[in-house]
Amino acid sequence: MPSFDEVLKEAGEFGRFQKRVFFLLSQTGITFSSLFASVVFLGRAPGNFWCRIPGAAELSERCGWTLEEERNFTVLPLQLGNESVTGECERLDVTWDSSASCSSPLARYGNRSTGSLPLAPCLGSWVYEQPRSSVVSEYDLVCGNAWMLDLSQAILNLGFLAGAFILGYAADRYGRIPIYLLSCLGVGICGIIVAFSPNFTAFLIFRFLQGMFGKGTWMTCYVIVTEIVGSDQRMVGIVIQIFFTLGIIILPGIAYLIPTWQGIQLAISLPNFLFLLYYWVVPESPRWLLTRKQGEKALKIMRNIAKHNGKFLSPHYSEITISNEEVSNPSFLDLVRTPQMRRNTLILMYAWFTSALIYQGLVMRLGIIGGNLYLDFFISGAVELPSALLIMVTIDRIGRRLPFAMGNFVASIACLITAFLPEDIPWLKTTVATLGRLSITVAFEVVYLVNSELYPTTLRNFGVSLCSSLCDLGGIIAPFLLFRLAAIWLELPLVIFSILAAVCGVLVLLLPETKGISLPETVEDVEQL
Predict the structure, then answer these.
(1) CATH topology assigned to domain 332-528
(2) For residue 422, which phi and psi values (nearest 5 degrees)?
(3) What are the tens digits of pLDDT across the range 411-454?
(4) What digits encode the pLDDT tens for the residues 304-329?
(5) Could you give the angle at which helices 426-453 and 401-420 cross, rounded to 10 degrees?
(6) I want to staple 472 with a disulfide (CB 3.0 to 4.6 A). Which of 21, 160, 323, 436 is the partner?
């Protein structure tokens, strides 16, 4: 009885069939990255806004004021009395009623200067020049409520975290394709509900669920792609990252063309329904079927793969051998029970956490320099493209470990240099920081590949999902780490990033090299790497 890898080699390790499945599933990367980074445009600044004086709406309607005229009557007198007050979070503590004059609504308060009039905090009565452009204006996430926008991104990352555990486990137990399709349906439905949420609480609940299902689509499609190709072709795990970057590059174009946040939300959510058509063209992973003692189904799929690849599978094959390991419901203990598995798991968890923390930290740091939001975001995404090309050139020549370690070491050095460069040469600081972004992206993309190659088939999806959950934890911590430490010293976050990356670079050198090695089928295979 032949092994699975022997049958795969005979059927074609990366023929027409695998290329088609790879291309179809890679589209998931575009929608997932759009969801991942969407808060930048869903929560963009709403333009000019001010706090409305009680009774101003009725008076404005009676007097036929434009928004600009209402703002002049509301904000200008406030600023004349106190130039430091913007009128966004405070208002004059007055009330306009039917007796107020259209030409001078403050005349009833006599000759007192506006500076002597008391001020009151604004409590939910804001007026926006662009009322539907952002969730900020939709749910009044300004002034004392501004932190709620950060909360929405933290909730999304919590959804990613939940998806890594729940759907990662489900994909190992119930199959890759059923969970992938369920996740695509969930992302689409929750995305629509998010766009039409009646209040901010509903927005958060369904954004959490969209994050959970979104993580299910991304992790499951990645595992399927790596499981249906030969050991010499698993670079497709790196190439699929290019589609994630394409989503980052496309997103600002979508946001530029669609003026409302609801439109942007629908544009990044609705394409997930198209992925449901994959039910008829993407088969279940034959590797997974073999681990669930469904050899006949696996062999049928392999014969179909061979047919599409123009190959011929021997009719004498009646069974494919794979591990004799008993299949059980995976748990964290399975990942740390044996010495090599334990070492790999702990190092990979740290690598995921560090890569995500530094990656998002550097993205946010470049984002606060101002300028054109759409152009800056596009450039920040384009910077990531060379990383995938760099990996593709080196990974099959020198292996996984060295690019993995060098990505961390170069990021560490770049962050440290950037921290101590003088402020009067901003172009050089930005260039070196961009080099750090490119390098940590290399490390981020290699960890995907290495993670899937260091776990046996029975634990692969669960192992990748569990370890990558530390990525989501890093994403939750990154904004707080960046802004809290920057309040102490602006460049302190870069020093912390440098230390974390250097430690990660040393640790990944302790991992086994997986270049050209068949995917392990059992825990014993991992122990012998």
Answers:
(1) Growth Hormone; Chain: A; (1.20.1250)
(2) -65, 150
(3) 999 999 988 888 788 778 777 888 888 899 889 888 877 887 88
(4) 888 888 888 777 766 676 654 444 56
(5) 160
(6) 160
